Amino acid sequence: MDCLFCKIISGEIPSSKVYEDEWVYSFKDINPQTPVHILAIPKEHICCIDEVNSSNSSYVARIFEAIPKIAAEAGLTNGYRVISNCGDDACQTVKHLHFHIMGGRKLPENMG
Length: 112
Fold this sequence. Notes:
Elements: H1 4-10, E1 17-20, E2 24-28, E3 36-42, H2 57-73, E4 80-83, E5 99-103
Antiparallel strand pairs: 1-2, 2-3, 3-5, 4-5
């Protein structure tokens, strides 16, 4: 499989890791849209939200259990936004399920 995020998880491509456990890998976005912009991804390749099912949804649950820890460690004590793009019309550029954790300033209501 030629997946950028799978290569980051395996260490083949370097990243600025901020969190890792058995299920989740999280790293700083290389093109941040907010002062804090971190990606959280499952260690199992899941293309997008459309491919979440009963056999892999435990990865999504683990990501959402990790997100508050990641946000707190990043200093996002006054709130943050979590976004996931699904498909071409949503501008999903990497076809590996991922969640953007964004914050570090007051975010506009129409962003995301």
